[in-house]
């Protein structure tokens, strides 16, 4: 038996996927009670295979242990604080899962007659209203399947509005601290991207926007709080500058967690924004589930919303409206990732207005607590209060030869997922930590103590940090090879 160092869970080394035995089965089908058919005649000979697919033959218990064991090799927010900055890896309350599994939601078919899924459509409209309330926007479309797709949709609507006004603007302004999806969304819409430099204090200044603002600018895309975790204090003045020349302001809402219940982008002058339900609204990320990136707009953009739009009629019934000639079209095969909408709605309703505000406040408090506890040990490139996340760098460790990458790898030995590293790009050696509101004081202290211990270890025994991780099943990977030549599917061992 071997024991996983971070989880303490024991596993048998030799029970691997390759341990197939001919004839071993993990399922039992009931006896056939319908006549046998000639599949070739029914489906066409091409559709019927006569060889076996070569899948491993294993018992049920082998399969369950295999997947359960693999799940323990992962970092997960259900195991420990998950400080991946900009991703808001908050705890996903289990009540969300219960609600998403209610058959009326889970079994609703995207092509079902709206009359047969009124409950789901009502939930969607109420979620749209909730997101409008939280953000100060006038309408929301729930279709986009990720923040990046929300951005794409938002910029498409901006383009459509300018075109409807007979204006051909070709530029989108993006601050130098922005996430890469912002320039990508602009470029995919055919715009030229012009970068706006942040000031020495890490935020955007009206003069910098004024200097690049022309009548050719379709929009400014801004993240607030920005990717350094700093509130863009001049957002009001910046929106005025952009609006005065006929441009629109897009807000990347990835960091909305910091503003929840306290401030609303719509009140700051923002015209379009996206939400990441898989961040702010506690729906699972990545391998845990598909994303959801609703896009919110001010009324002027409503003629360009994606279709179908869910409408509530005067009699209280709900319908799908595709009759919107100015629409940018359909973005998703169904109504968005509906299971995520149920989870996000559950989160909103279970927290309520007060809970939402407390969530934003605690996220900010926790990030500042870590900033203060760690600032003697890690370099803080931009000093002062942060919002929901704090950015450090490896500058203080320069004389040890230990880098941000090494610190991140060493954290894995202590059972933590690494923070976001080397982003934002304007901070060399960045370590971006977002603790979220989900962590207790003791949990934050444990995490801070671990990072302090690693900084000390970098001085006393740098090689141990440089060669981390040591306690994981796989040691440090060759990241270039993993990116360039990924092995994405299990292959049978030719020797077995
Ligand atoms: C600031 C920012 N904008 C946009 C995105 C894109 O969001 P998504 O990953 O949901 O596509 C991210 C993702 O981490 C982000 O951090």
Architecture overview:
Helix content is 35%, strand content 11%. By secondary structure, the chain is of the alpha/beta class. The protein has a seven-stranded mixed sheet, sandwiched between helices. Strand 4, helix 7 and strand 5 form a beta-alpha-beta unit. The protein starts with a strand and ends in a 12-residue tail after the last helix. Bound molecules: pyridoxal-5'-phosphate. The site of pyridoxal-5'-phosphate has 14 residues, from helix 6.
Order of helices and strands: EEHHHHHEHEHEHEHEHEEEEHEHEEHHH
Question: Residue-averaged pLDDT, rounded?
Answer: 93
Structure ligands: pyridoxal-5'-phosphate
CATH class bucket of the largest domain: Alpha Beta
The SS-based structural class is alpha/beta
The tally of strands reads 14
In which range does the helix fraction lie?
25-40%
Percent of residues in β-strands:
5-15%
First-last Cα distance? 23 Å
Oligomer: single chain
Number of individual domains: 3
Low-confidence stretches: none
What topology, given as strand order, has the largest sheet? 3-9-8-7-6-4-5
Q: CATH-wise, what's the superfamily of the largest domain?
A: Type I PLP-dependent aspartate aminotransferase-like (Major domain)
Tally of helical segments: 15
Sum up the overall morphology in one term.
globular
Supply the CATH architecture of the largest domain. 3-Layer(aba) Sandwich
Backbone CA Rg: 25 Å
According to CATH, what is the topology of the largest domain?
Aspartate Aminotransferase, domain 2
